[in-house]
Q: What sequence folds into this?
């Protein structure tokens, strides 16, 4: 084999790599983190306050993977929230994001069925309000 054939093969392989890279880039979803990204950015300071309020509670919210589903447990020291929301954010694609209303039972538990999810990585954020204060808990989970 001479130099001309080697260079031609190298160029063809390189062009094939570039074409396959471009095709994969165009076929990949490029969802934003949120459709209201700018508005949420303006509320960043409120989010930091809510996170600090949660840390001052001195108690941990627990997320457990059980055979029945995902169980969220609030410590007994946290009084029942007036209202709240549980958000499961899936970075891979926003079509797998899930939102639930926070509804704790008498034991401070909430069980979410696995049917609502697909296996993989989620970023969980639980926000709630009590006595005109807002709280925010965040954790990553994989199942």
A:
């Amino acid at each position: 084999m001479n130099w001309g054939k080697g260079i031609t093969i190298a160029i063809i392989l390189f062009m094939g790599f570039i074409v396959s890279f471009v095709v994969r880039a165009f076929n990949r979803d490029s969802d934003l983190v949120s459709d209201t990204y700018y508005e949420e950015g303006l509320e960043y300071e409120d989010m930091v306050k809510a996170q600090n309020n949660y840390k001052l509670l001195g108690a941990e919210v627990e997320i457990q993977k059980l055979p029945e589903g995902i169980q969220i447990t609030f410590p007994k020291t946290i009084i029942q929230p007036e209202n709240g929301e549980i958000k499961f954010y899936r970075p891979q694609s926003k079509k797998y994001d899930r939102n639930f209303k926070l509804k704790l039972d008498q034991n401070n538990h909430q069980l979410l069925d696995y049917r609502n999810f697909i296996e993989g990585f989620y970023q969980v954020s639980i926000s709630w309000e009590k006595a005109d204060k807002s709280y925010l808990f965040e954790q990553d989970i994989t199942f």
